[in-house]
């Protein structure tokens, strides 16, 4: 018997995720990002003043698709909803990101200490996972 793959578990073996957010005009903006899957939630790490974070605060509707580092799609787009998480939910997501990306994430965290800028963690739930 095979295990049915949900949209979220389909992403778990990927290294990059293309996150498509929407400007006020409705124009989509796709950005390749690091991410981690935890249960039915996908977490993304970003600068707090990044355009994608600002756009999610205005419109939580997003689309996600697996991609390579340059954003070239490796799978189909999936409709989802995103929100900026509070500090309590951000800490476990940060630990999972360190576990997945290792020294690369550690290096970004080190740079954060040298040049402190506010960071944000985005929680994404696919439409299928929300049902």
Task: Characterise the protein shown here.
By secondary structure, the chain is an alpha+beta fold. It has one domain (7-127): Electron Transport, Fmn-binding Protein, Chain A (Pnp Oxidase, Chain A, Roll). Helix content is 34%, strand content 35%. It has a 7-stranded antiparallel sheet with strand order 2-1-5-6-7-4-3, sandwiched between helices. Strand 1 and strand 2 form a beta hairpin. Helix 3 packs across helix 4. The protein is globular and about 35 Å long. The two termini are 24 Å apart. 24% of the residues are buried. Mean pLDDT is 82; it is low at 1-5.
Largest sheet: 7 strands, antiparallel
Measured as a percent range, the helix fraction is: 25-40%
Span between termini: 24 Å
CATH-wise, what's the superfamily? Electron Transport, Fmn-binding Protein, Chain A
- Fraction in beta strands: 35-45%
Number of structural domains:
1
Q: Poorly predicted ranges (pLDDT <50, ≥5 residues)?
A: 1-5
Output mean pLDDT: 82
The shape, in one word, is globular
Q: Count the helices. How many?
A: 5
Order of helices and strands: HEEEEHEEHHEH
CATH architecture: Roll
Task: Summarize the entry for a quick read.
The protein is built from five helices and seven strands. By secondary structure, it is of the alpha+beta class.
Keywords:
alpha+beta, 34% helix, 7-stranded antiparallel beta sheet, single chain, 7 strands, Pnp Oxidase, Chain A
SSE order and pairing:
Elements lengths: L6 H5 L4 E7 L5 E6 L1 E4 L2 E7 L3 H8 L2 E7 L10 E7 L2 H15 L1 H12 L4 E8 H4 L1
Antiparallel strand pairs: 1-2, 1-5, 3-4, 4-7, 5-6, 6-7
Helix pairs in contact: 3-4
